[in-house]
Amino acid sequence: ADMEGEIRIYDSVPGHSARAFVSPQGTSGRSGRAVTDTIRSLKLYCATAEAEALKDDADALRRVAWILATSRYAELRDGPKAVAYAEKAIAVTSRKNAGLLAILAAAYAEAGNFPRAIGAQKEAIALLTSEERKKAFTSELKLYESHLPRRDDSW
Fold first, then answer.
1. Spatial distance between the Cα atoms of 111 and 83, rounded to a whole number of angstroms
2. Single pTM value for the model
3. Which position among 20, 42, 91, 104 has the lowest Cβ density within 10 Å, counted as fewest Cβ atoms?
4. CA distances (Å), origin 70, targets 83, 150, 151
């Protein structure tokens, strides 16, 4: 890219701590350019992760599903595709991973299927033992009950 700033791509999904961002160092006064570069970088990241997802890589599947479901950039979101990737990841884990179920819920919400989003989020909450995580997942459930999709500002 022709950015003066540094591009760093990390991972950010429920239950995981890293983030994805483009540092706007050197892009002062050019916020439109920084956003364009961010979107371009994330599209490249998604394309790479999608290639891995095609190999039934559960980690790649969840990363792509999360971005497609929750990105703050409309150009990156694709609810039906996010649902397909999330369902495939969940099939690999036999529906025993709360984080993946939360991603599926976010994907359903992005696709406009709020009843299924609510069901998947409740299923995720039922698997949790940590009260702190239950609280976070419950706040997401409230979004879906209000017919609002989840957004991750880091993507």
1. 8
2. 0.72
3. 91
4. 12, 6, 4
